[in-house]
Specification:
Elements: E1 2-9, H1 13-22, E2 33-35, E3 38-42, E4 54-59, H2 69-73, E5 80-82, E6 85-88, H3 93-105, E7 112-116, E8 129-133, E9 138-143, E10 146-151, H4 162-169, E11 177-180, H5 189-194, E12 198-203, H6 206-218, E13 225-229, H7 232-235, E14 243-248, H8 258-264, E15 265-278, H9 284-294, E16 299-312, E17 315-325
Parallel strand pairs: 6-7, 11-12, 11-14, 12-13, 14-15
Antiparallel strand pairs: 1-3, 1-4, 2-3, 5-6, 7-8, 9-10, 15-17, 16-17
Length: about 325
């Protein structure tokens, strides 16, 4: 069977395997293979593999000792993995329970199965879940060397953005002042702090802020992380001119917080601005909104225009890396 793989030189194999494993991208259903001096590492989501790695497809042998849910069901179920949890999106309750039973009977290291019961809703962007297996909705997720504990019923978290968060984190320098305006449990904050930045995470969700503090402790960066439960507009004046880097990952309404962002920005500040727009003009509305808010106080330049993922038919989730210089 043709399987997406990362191809690396054998001498780089272990380091690459660890990085992919930290991002939860290794496909355990297939054997690692060595051929022609290269190591082939099977991956679950080729689009999530960091750009520095080469992705190819090639035939791989299935692990004979591992029983997958598809082996028990007779079809390939659709689900996301988050830590030791499988996340389903099934409208049919009977089918969802059938998949949950197969996940538990398989050899996959999964103990919890949750089925989505609502869309993301409300100011805190949480959703309802049906707990089909496991004790509760709390999970532990690893991503690029960072560990996060979170309760999916109480906080918003998307494992699909792991590669994008890693891309941004790699730009962070030690000694920076970075502020995440909608921080959640810290998927930007923690890796920033691990790279030596002083980081402030702000969120209106009290549960998310408590998890952010716990995750800072888990990752040994609590001395570089300040967690604030508030609407970021309420604390912008207190931290005026403080930030060298701002994250604005609230793609449906980040434009409403640009005035606060300009207040927080220092003399030379990079903003990672996330937006959802029609494919005909995915970057224009965000760039115009940023210029309207920041000029003429700042010179505005766009360093990167990036499509993060498809969001809906004809709609794209995009990121603008924008530099503000006074």
């Amino acid at each position: 069977m043709e399987v997406p793989c990362v191809r690396v030189a054998r001498e780089s194999g272990e380091a690459t395997r660890r990085e992919l494993a930290d991002a939860d991208l290794i496909d355990d259903a297939y054997e690692l293979t060595v051929a022609d001096g290269s190591l082939y590492l099977p991956v679950t989501d080729p689009e999530a593999v960091p750009e520095e790695f080469e992705v190819v497809t090639r035939p791989l042998e299935e692990r004979e000792t591992q029983t997958a849910p598809a082996d028990l069901l007779g079809y390939e179920p659709s689900y996301e993995r988050l830590g030791e949890a499988a996340l389903l999106d099934e409208d049919d309750d009977e089918r969802a329970r059938e998949i949950a039973d197969a996940v538990l009977e398989s050899d996959l290291p999964l103990e919890t199965v949750l089925n989505k019961q609502s869309k993301v809703k409300g100011e805190t962007r949480v959703r309802d879940w049906d707990l089909l297996a496991g004790e509760d909705t709390e999970v532990v997720h690893r991503e690029y060397g960072c560990g996060f504990v979170l309760d999916l019923a109480e906080v918003y978290f998307s494992p699909r953005l792991a590669t994008e968060r890693h891309r941004v984190a790699e730009q962070v320098q030690a000694g920076e002042h970075a502020l995440d305006m909608f921080a959640g449990v810290g998927p930007f904050v923690i890796p920033f702090a691990k790279r030596g930045a002083d980081v402030i995470g702000v969120d209106v969700n009290e549960d998310a802020i408590e998890y952010l503090r716990e995750n800072a402790r888990r990752n040994g960066v609590e001395d570089r992380v300040t967690a604030i439960c508030a609407d970021v507009t309420e604390v912008a004046d207190e931290y005026a001119d403080w930030a060298d880097r701002l994250v604005m990952n609230l793609p449906h309404s980040a434009d409403a917080f640009l005035e606060a962002a300009v207040t927080l920005a220092g003399d030379d500040c990079t903003i990672h601005y996330y937006d959802i727009q029609h494919e005909d003009d995915p970057f224009g509305p965000g760039e115009r909104a940023i210029r309207e808010a920041a000029e003429p106080e700042y010179d505005v330049s766009v360093d990167t225009r990036r499509v993060v993922r498809s969001y809906a038919p004809h709609e794209l989730n995009v990121c603008l890396d924008v530099r503000l210089e006074q």
